[in-house]
Write a structure and sequence with these properties.
The chain is of the alpha+beta class. The chain has 15 helices and 22 strands. It folds into three domains: 100 residues, 3-Layer(aba) Sandwich (Rossmann fold); 70 residues, Dna Ligase, domain 1, CATH 3.30.1490.20; 247 residues, D-amino Acid Aminotransferase, Chain A, domain 1, CATH 3.30.470.20. Helix 2 links the parallel strand 2 and strand 3. Helix 5 packs across helix 6. The radius of gyration is 21 Å and the shape is globular. The N and C termini lie far apart (53 Å). The protein binds adenosine-5'-diphosphate (2 copies) and magnesium ion. The site of one adenosine-5'-diphosphate has 15 residues, from strand 6 and strand 11.
Length: 454
């Protein structure tokens, strides 16, 4: 078992990982930038190390500073959380080369599955259907034009190293494509340090459905699916499980394909295989694998009773997978909403600032994962996620009723947050019917801007 863990992250996910480690009796070391000296993860960890200035490049993305913090505090392991270095194969290798345990897959597995292009090839080779598109990276605009014959329009240009909804462009015509392609290349290079691009046909009116995996390098199990079709700018805002769009047969097929893929690459740790599901055609397509814990993992924890972060720590500590597929069962329905420091009435403009009185919802079926406390000053340097509200009920209807109850109870004084968006969505007939797709919310936002402003 691991003895002392450095958490190479901040915000709610650092808090989440510290809690899991403490539950297992593992000592914890937080790291913080100059902007995060007062952050909750720093307060609740056993120790904390200052690693640099606010800019992430000089703190949370500084591998040497992180490795030195782990060394100086006598850690035997590092958990990367999500974002920052979580899907950086070189970081996984560097941690291992230092003699520490990386709580996540090997550099080899991250290189294979974290790169969206090689993951597409690995999926296709494992017999998992992928979205029609380029066979590999498209190196030139001439090569890209040839792929258009297969995809048609609209087409997606995606960054091989993209993530978090960034690095994706849509072109509706050859003119748009010729303009967008070089821009996408330059942007990908600037944002991800890798200008590699690939192309996919746009799957219209699809649902985003993803399968949670746990694996130990030999064996792999799935913890069923989550549906994350409510998105803004290709970022999830509301996630739930199970998906009501899947028949039992299709669910079994989808989950089995994710397990096959994890086994094919000898995957170790927690991972998520993401798909688009076209209900009308009843077809699913692999889009990517996230080789890390995901923001929305608590939804799966709620319906399965599994502590995914604790399982990651056990696997990293060398324990074989404790779960067998037959013992993983789904109970009820869970929903998570992302409370961001953003003003929905002003096109989701970021809203950093000081938290006044805080009232956190509770009671049966309610979980609140956050980095908030009253008096906390939310710094402007990082992503805007403040908290996640997760509700669980016997049925989807019961979960939505709890969501509304908990949102009404929640008060984050002094801040603009995405709470009004979720109250409005929880009353919307299409959301209540589960009749949504990945582009649905953007249309809804255009039609309901006035309601959110009010
Ligand atoms: P999830 O995939 O877990 O649902 P997101 O897509 O929102 O969640 O990503 C989680 C976090 O990781 C976000 O803060 C996002 O900005 C960040 N992230 C994901 N992939 C990358 C990447 N390739 N480069 C930089 N940040 C990323
Ligand atoms: P990221 O790494 O940013 O999470 P993904 O490849 O997972 O990027 O795509 C993010 C979202 O973009 C998906 O959930 C979906 O809404 C949309 N998307 C991605 N690829 C396609 C596609 N080929 N057709 C339609 N929508 C897509
Ligand atoms: Mg994705």
């Amino acid at each position: 078992m691991l003895k002392k863990l450095l958490i190479a992250n901040r915000g709610e996910i650092a808090v989440r990982v510290i809690r899991a480690a403490q539950d297992l009796g593992i000592a914890t070391v937080a790291v913080y930038s100059a902007a995060d000296a007062d952050a909750l993860h720093v307060k609740i960890a056993d120790e904390a190390v200052h690693i640099g200035p606010p800019a992430a490049k000089k703190s949370y993305l500084d591998m040497n500073a992180l490795l030195e913090a782990a060394r100086s505090t006598g850690c035997d392991s590092i958990h990367p959380g999500y974002g920052f270095l979580a899907e950086n194969a070189d970081f996984s290798d560097a941690v291992t080369a230092t003699g520490l345990v990386f709580v996540g897959p090997s550099g080899r597995a991250i290189r294979l599955m974290g790169d969206k292009v090689s993951a597409r090839s690995a999926a296709a080779a494992a017999g998992v259907p992928v979205v029609p598109g380029s066979a590999g990276r498209v190196e030139s605009i001439e090569a890209a034009r040839a792929v258009l014959e297969e995809t048609g329009f609209p087409v997606m240009i995606k960054a091989a190293a993209g993530g978090g909804g960034r690095g994706i462009r849509i072109a509706n015509s050859l003119d748009e494509f010729d303009q967008a392609f070089p821009q996408a290349q330059a942007e990908a290079l600037a944002a991800f340090g890798d200008g590699g691009l690939y192309m996919e046909k746009v799957i219209g009116r699809a649902r985003h459905i993803e399968v949670q995996i746990l694996a130990d390098g030999r064996d792999a199990v799935h913890c069923f699916e989550r549906e994350c079709s409510l998105q803004r700018r290709r970022q999830k805002v509301w996630e739930e499980a199970p998906s009501r769009a899947l028949s039992d047969a299709l669910r079994a097929e989808l989950c089995a394909s994710a397990v096959a893929l994890a086994k094919a690459v000898s995957y170790s740790g927690a991972g998520t295989v993401e798909y688009l599901y076209d209900d009308a055609a009843d077809r699913f397509y692999f889009i990517e694998m996230n080789t890390r814990i995901q923001v929305e993992h608590p939804v799966t924890e709620a319906i399965t009773g599994i502590d995914l972060v604790a399982e990651m720590l056990r696997i990293a500590g060398g324990e074989p997978l404790r779960l067998s597929q037959g013992n993983i069962r789904v109970k009820g329905h869970a929903i998570e909403v992302r409370l961001n420091a953003e003003d929905p009435a002003r096109d989701f403009a970021p809203f950093p600032g000081k938290v006044g009185d805080l009232r956190i919802p509770g009671g049966p079926g309610v979980r609140f994962d956050s980095m908030l406390y009253s008096g906390y000053d939310v710094p402007p340097f990082y992503d805007s996620l403040l908290a996640k509200l997760i509700v669980h009920g016997e049925t989807r209807e019961a979960a939505i009723a709890r969501l509304v109850r908990a949102l009404r109870e929640l008060e984050i004084a002094g801040m603009k947050t995405t709470k009004p968006l979720f109250l409005a969505l929880a009353a919307d007939p299409a959301v209540l019917a589960g009749d949504v797709h990945t582009r649905w919310l953007e249309g809804w936002l255009t039609d309901n801007a006035a309601a959110l402003a009010g």
